[in-house]
Design a protein that fits this description.
With about 300 residues, this protein is of the alpha+beta class. It has 9 helices and 13 strands. It is elongated, with a radius of gyration of 21 Å.
Length: about 300
Amino acid sequence: MRPDRPAVGRVSAVVAVLTAGLVLFPRAIPNSVGRLGSLLEAFLPWLGLVAVVLLAVGLLHRSAVALLALLLPVAAWTYTFGGLLLPGARPGPGELVVVQHNVSDENADPAGTARALADAGPDLIALEELVPTALPVYERTFAPEYPHHAVRGTVGLWSRHPLTGTRPLDIKPEGIEEDWRRGLRTSVRTPHGDIAVYVAHLPSVRVGAGGLASRRRDESAGLLGRAVAAEPRDPVILLGDLNGTVDDRGLAPLTTRMNVAERGFAFSYPAALPLTRIDQVMARSATVVDIRALPATGSDHLPVAARITLG
């Protein structure tokens, strides 16, 4: 039996209100049970697909109420994410191009990956999941255009400009006993002045029957946030696989202190079907003008490239 139009309209209206509410107020979903709030925030832009479903329902059942109801999630999504679709500002003085990439410790073609990243023409290239067997390949391939580099543990930064004051960054959460070095801080001497650059790889998260397992990621984000807060130099640029989106409250120690990209979604993971961006570029006392995903390499992540205006 085909549902009557009033019933379809009422159900559509309820779905529309709930969807719009989640888009605008995702933190209404608590993190106390299974970190469901963070799980929702990881895929928040995809709630826009509800409007497509409501449109199909409204047309199929010829329900004016259902068609009107879809305006709520459309308006909420446009208000929250619509600005990311606008074109970025024109290139200007004091601008850097940076590339961030988790190259994967199982990457079978590090040389090809390095060439692809260099072809994007960035000033800085940050890498995570560097392994001893692949590191010499990256060093050799990058050397002609990126003569300055620093590696600490499994993270590294390659630069066209000199690096000074490089040191490891302790973002290791409790409970990890093995050698775990996933952060560095350095200064880059650019033509526009010295900047502090952080490269970090936060712990992975897993989705299981109990929800999102992100305790270690959240703890490491807190340590990184405190390190950035204590940084005396400005501007500051953070590049890394943070295993969370900029909407995820687990990264609040960083997103409350730093600017995120003004334009672009740049979904980067998984590379085969990118659904979310966990590879991030953030800045303090600088503007991340836009961010975009680059073509796939031998990694399970896509690289992302961002333009940053200093000052």
